[in-house]
Amino acid sequence: MTAKLLLVEDMIVEDEEFHHLNNPADGIKPIVKKYLGTPNHAEQLGNKIFFTDGDAKVEVLIVTNEIIRVRLAPHSVFLEEFSYAVPELPETSVEFTLLENEQEFRVTTPAINCHIRKQDFFISFSDKNDHVTSSDAVPMHWEENTQFGGYYVFCTKTCEEQESFFGLGDKATEFNLRGKRLKNWNTDAYSFGYNQDPLYRSIPFYISVSDGIAHGIFFDNTFKAHFDFGGEDPTKTSFWADGGELQYYYIHGPHMMDVVKNYHLLTGTHPMPPLWALGYHQCRWSYYPENKVRVIANGFRQNRIPCDGIYLDIDYMDGYRCFTWSPKYFPNPKKMIADLAANGFKTVVIIDPGIRVDDNYSVFKEGKEKKYFCRRCDDYFMEGHVWPGRCQFPDFTNPEVRAWWGDLFDDLVETGVAGVWNDMNEPAVFGSGTFPDDVRHQYDGYRGSHRKAHNVYGMQMVRATYEGLRKQMKNKRPFTITRAGYSGVQRYSSVWTGDNVASWEHLKLGNIQLQRLSVSGISFCGTDIGGFSGEPDGELFTRWIQMGAFSPFMRAHSAGDTKEREPWSFGEPYTAINRKFIELRYRLIPYLYSAFWEHHRYGFPILRPVVMHEQEEVSNHFRQDEFTYGDKILICPVLEPGQKSRSVYLPKGKWFNFWTLEMVDGGKEVVVPTPLDIMPIFVKAGSVIPEYPVMQYTGEKEIEEVKLNIYYSDYEVNSFLFEDYGETFAYEQDIYLEKKFVVKGTADKLTIQQSMEGLYTPRYEGYHIKLNGLPFKPTKIVADGKEIATISSNSDKTYEFKFSKNFKKIEIFK
Ligand code: GLC
């Protein structure tokens, strides 16, 4: 240093003293990817085992016998443990052993092994039969990000020749993701096209099926993340992110269902919805003024088309200011909502995150005073244009902001609003698309830029909404719907697939998207029936209503510049067919509600793609039209115009055509006629399908009896029925009833047994039992030892009788 100073001050050039060695920039190596070296040490701390190569550290956490989490710290310092997706790790006792030999360290649980290879730090997993299910192809690696600090983090695994991939939440592409390269970055994707990526939600969870064995990878990283399923190199599967920690959960199968259930164990399930939310919902951008809303509501009742929910899109507000009402269009919202409620409608209103910059607007003023709006790195407010004009945006990653936001709903709840629709929460900003990366977030005290918070912003918004509504509505179940989300969003909301298009291609895409969302943790999902933008013709709309009747969430919605789009808008024969399918939706509500319980309580998805039933058949990995609704009803939507018949694959076992009651053997494709009023529906032999009478809205009439549709089977089949109050959280205190039916038939007898568990007593007294597909004519029916006197027989060889809801055993004799 001395020589250099002299140079400047005395202007004496002393060449021989000029050393480059002292240049501090000298010796800095170029930024390159760095790979784990060789593990030379293992240290166990409770359920965690740490491996190091001398500099980097890897943590292996045994979460359960089937779930192992892997984390990487490039220079041995792990980030603080915090996850919006996994609020708490499951508390289960695990037994495991750590072994070391010349080749590897091995962690063994009763279900799986995790191998850490000494030669190169490759991490792999195998099952009890030493079958390797997942293996690194390259050691975990990272690259420094000088701009932001931290690292780009990478994991590359081998991809087997016949390996298939499913999940990843919401992608507008084939159901099987093999060969795809995809990105997770929540994006407002108006009128998205086939193969457009990314869309509105980021679910960094995928399921692999290879050699008939399934496992899952949940890459819990909220930064922009990338997945390559054998796209760039057919022998490799990679996932990487632009920041954060390389942290993933390996979730063992062997069935896809096990993987999905375990993913739910980590990220939670949907709370039980209010029963009305399973009805039909009518939406449009926008129904206004007030009289229009009333006309639409009356239209449903006049046309005798059931409907439970009616939506108010942005035009109900005063200048699009959230939590206000347009005095011109909705002068007396309380009265309107009360009148709608008296007519059986629940009102759902939209609330976006953008808060108009306006010092005369209380929400803006309060948010500003309390410093609740997001700011840029230099402390400027994050401002951008959305519907209200110039807006600022609450930082929903701040728990205090969430609590404030939740309380803002008190007026809406007081006004009678039953549900809230959160939109534009990717977050969407006109022009720029979304927030710039330098926006700062509180991130529940862990701080981060928008790079880290972007993908969770929408989820935290709807969380604030849900938690606020739950508080305001006391013990009533709120209904929420969101466009954006991250893993775990299902704990707070239902989801719709965003701004789709009125085209046959989008009907197909919607079918795939809902199945994909379902296996990715988001069971309560639906599409904009009819397509948001563009004009469907009557046929397309009707086919969409048919599919929508079997979407866990059923809502028709359309953009403001389209023609009227209610189920009766296309005239006959469409109106009658739409009515028939919406009525069918309502008849099957107790079945859907039971499937919802199975989801909520046990982590089963509501829609189950065919591959989930028969993953060992490789041809099923490419089927994407058929799915089951719950586990008993198979649906195959009609996805082409003018289609007079279509082939439907039925998984192995026996099935009944719902319409004709013809029994068909599964394990093959069958051709089914598809006139406009028919969508292929099959019921699994041995099922008990509960049915309610058709009502114009849920709760219109007291249920006097529940119909049980029993389908004959010559093997034993279990079915479930869940019942409770349908609108409170009493189920959390075990106030519900879980009924189990066991159906078993022989050539000359059919037996149905019922058992019950729980503390709820439904008000109806009896069942109306309908026997379908009996291979004989019954001569005697004995229920709990008593012979049934009145049995009616129908021309389609079905038989009906009534009996107490408390029966234990019913025997039907030839
Ligand atoms: C967005 C939503 C759409 C809504 C519109 C107006 O495009 O995705 O559903 O109708 O905004 O609020």
Folded structure, characterized:
The chain is globular. Helix 6 (399-407) packs parallel to helix 8 (450-472). By secondary structure, it is an alpha+beta fold. Bound molecules: alpha-D-glucopyranose (GLC).
Index terms:
814 residues, alpha+beta, ten-stranded antiparallel β-sheet, 30% strand, binds alpha-D-glucopyranose
Q: How much is the average pLDDT? A: 96
Give the number of DSSP strands.
53
Measure the end-to-end span. Answer: 105 Å
**Percent range for helical residues?**
10-25%
Summarize the main sheet.
10 strands, antiparallel
Proportion of strand residues: 25-35%
What small ligands are held by the chains?
Answer: alpha-D-glucopyranose
Shape: globular
Radius of gyration: 29 Å
Q: Residue ranges: pLDDT <50 for 5 or more in a row?
A: 1-14
Number of helical segments with 4 or more residues: 13
SS content category? alpha+beta
Organism: Mucilaginibacter aquariorum
Domain Glycoside hydrolase family 31 N-terminal: 58-228
Pfam family, one: Glyco_hydro_31_2nd
Protein name: Glycoside hydrolase family 31 protein
